Amino acid sequence: MENGNQSIVKEFVLLGLSQARETQLFLFVLYLVFYSLILPGNILIIVTIQSDPRMSSPMYFFLANLAFLDICYCSVTPPKMFADFFSSHKTISYKGCIVQIFFLHLLGGSEVILIIAMAIDRYVAICHPLRYASLITRAVCWTLVLASWGVGFVHSIIQIIFIVPLPFCGPNELDNFFCDITQIVKLACNDTYALEFFMFFNSGLSNMMCFILLLISYGALLVKVKMGSSEGKRKAASTCITHIIIIFIMFGPAIYIYCHPFLDFPFDKVVAIFHTTVFPLMNPMIYTLRNKEIKQATRRLLGKHRPLAWPSLV
Predict the structure, then answer these.
(1) Which end of the chain is more exposed for a tag (fewer CB within 10 A), N or C?
(2) What mean pLDDT do residues 182-206 have?
């Protein structure tokens, strides 16, 4: 490493998910099948929303952006993980580790703010339906999306600013398949108690606060929509329940990872797998499975591009 940082570690050794070759091959096939099925599904959601004029409402605009963020998020760690399945020397450079941390927290932070923006959209739609079109305009939607990226960048760059000056003089083994602050901080040569406390506030406590506020807001919206009996109220309630499911899926692993002390726990790797690869790709799919309009729009899109049948020769 650079002398200015007083560091001698130039790369980190990733111990991965398992040392057994049979387990590695099983996990590789499992992830390959998962990605082959789910990743195209997320892309299909984006294409469907962008190509169907009926999907022009702010809710679908945010959903398309969520699918895009999740695809990006799931492209940070899996490429390296897949490559390491076929390598006996699983290492990542110091710079590569910092880049992984930056993009993980950039995209993760952006997604948190986007989920909050979706909650704001549902609040206005349910509580102020007559003013919805004038309040949630396309300009407001774009502002919220750009704000989510901006907040994610600030959140991520703060992590990097505090990590880069840390001296790393060994050991250099990370008991995981990717780099994150919870592992790399433990390898620093100096006392990191104050830094761990700050990281807990910046990542753990902030996630917990957003989680609680979102649950309270959606709970209040559910109480409001349950008072009505119209079809629109039932649809709004279904949408709120879907959002609550996504909130649990998204925030649960993040709270587990960043809210406990920077120590190793038995389920850390399992939670990290779901947090970085499985759950993000599932978010838009859950929205789709519970949304009749998107399912119908997807059928229309696939119907347009269905190959023409050969004329019968009989």
Answers:
(1) C
(2) 84
